[in-house]
Amino acid sequence: MVRLYNTLTKKKESFIPIDKDDVKMYVCGPTVYDTAHIGNARSVVVYDVLFQLLKFCYGKVTYVRNITDIDDKIINAASEKNSSIESISTYYTRAFHEDMKSINCAEPTYEPKATENIDCIIKLIEHLLQSGHAYESNKHVYFSVESYSEYGALSGKKIDELDHSNRVEVGENKKYPRDFVLWKPANDIDYKLSSYWSSPWGEGRPGWHIECSAKSYAYLGQDSDIHGGGIDLQFPHHGNEIAQSKSAFAGSVFAKYWVHNGFLTVNEEKMSKSLFNIVKVRDLLHSGIKGEVIRHALLKTHYRKPLNWTKNVISESQETLNKFYRLLRDVNVINIEKSDAEVFKDFVEALKNDLNIPEALVILHEMATKINKMSNEYEKLKLTESFVKSARFIGLLKSSYQEWFTAGVSHQEIERLIDLRRTAKQNKDYGTADKIREQLKQMGISISDNEDGTTTW
């Protein structure tokens, strides 16, 4: 049985789906105003593995991950670049898809955009107004926090202790300072960029929080099994979603299990533009780092724990995957999917235990060591097939041995770098020689210097 830590109850619980024949999961996706950084990618990778696990255990899983394509950040980006909202959101949505595919993430079942669900958003706001949980004020519509007695349950704080600084507007139109906007009137920039829609309250656009409640309802119904995202969304975003949805639909649980992945820091500092330490997935890929290496680096730390990104994270993951891929030297990986090999039982059990991917990776290391020591070729092949199937379960070992070690690198290029290194050593420029060795290592090429002065790879 799958067990997950439920942020709402603050404990690990057995996962019992509402309908075992159709598990429903909603995960908050990107706001598409820029390319994805590794913090964004961590969340996508975590829920991608959970998606695979749930499909393995239950069969059908409806996985919804939204796209926020109308937001202040997108409007600001469009204004700064003298572009349109649609151009900005389309470009960065495509970039997001390309980057996530590069790190071996599967597509969700549905990926609804905010701009394609305005009608549903308006209907939900109307429902909240009719039920007395929202009010109109000067062409704004706000959710009344005081109307929902359980507000703050997800974060475990009382209303007076909560900090609403994240995407919560302060304005004279509110009855209560902590009320949050459901619909805002169009301003001059909205008219200039056509970022507004008609509504019963005038021309305007939705607030951030209401879009996820509306899309969850539209694609999964009143209740779903899992609602997930980064821990930074726990409050206020997820707390506001709960308040909206449970207020709109009497008796609704909205989501039974709340799952949050931990923060990601860079050299123990929060990623921010002011610190110039934002690490983009696309930049890593363009620097020659394989997507699978990035994925492994994001999986090494338990999903609920903070992940600190350092310069060693990538090199360690590269070394691990090189070790794993060397086991595939004489294996036809195309035939593995057709084989009767099964994913290691202990491997699956580790994942069932609150998605303990680090423990699953330890099992892969143990199996790799065992395979290297085996002499019976048939037994070695069968264990290797299970090894590959297990690794692929979490999105690793998607390539063949040949593809991994020579992908995008010609033999001529390798020999050219080795010649440059040889010349550097002859000139006693050992710093350059070491840099070339490291460059080859990052490309997956291992070299050794022989006594006669030659270098093999």
In a few lines, what is going on in this structure?
This protein has 457 residues and is an alpha/beta fold. The chain is built from 16 helices and 15 strands. The chain has helices spanning 38-58, 72-80, 85-102, 118-130, 188-193, 208-220, 234-248, 281-286, 291-299, 311-326, 345-352, 357-373, 377-393, 401-406, 411-426, 430-442, and strands spanning 3-6, 11-14, 23-27, 61-65, 134-137, 140-143, 180-185, 204-206, 224-230, 255-261, 264-266, 269-270, 307-309, 448-449, 455-456.
Topology of helices and strands:
Elements (H helix, E strand, L loop, with lengths): L2 E4 L4 E4 L8 E5 L10 H21 L2 E5 L6 H9 L4 H18 L15 H13 L3 E4 L2 E4 L36 E6 L2 H6 L10 E3 L1 H13 L3 E7 L3 H15 L6 E7 L2 E3 L2 E2 L10 H6 L4 H9 L7 E3 L1 H16 L18 H8 L4 H17 L3 H17 L7 H6 L4 H16 L3 H13 L5 E2 L5 E2 L1
Parallel strand pairs: 3-4, 3-9, 9-10, 11-13
Antiparallel strand pairs: 1-2, 5-6, 6-7, 7-8, 11-12, 14-15
Q: What do these coordinates show?
A:
- The structure is a single chain.
- The chain is an alpha/beta fold.
- The chain has 16 helices and 15 strands.
- It has helices at residues 38-58, 72-80, 85-102, 118-130, 188-193, 208-220, 234-248, 281-286, 291-299, 311-326, 345-352, 357-373, 377-393, 401-406, 411-426, 430-442; strands at residues 3-6, 11-14, 23-27, 61-65, 134-137, 140-143, 180-185, 204-206, 224-230, 255-261, 264-266, 269-270, 307-309, 448-449, 455-456.
- It has a 4-stranded parallel beta sheet with strand order 4-3-9-10, with helices on both faces.
- Strand 3 (23-27), helix 1 and strand 4 form a beta-alpha-beta unit.
- Helix 2 (72-80) packs across helix 3 (85-102), helix 4 crosses helix 6 and helix 12 packs antiparallel against helix 13.
- It is globular and about 85 Å long.
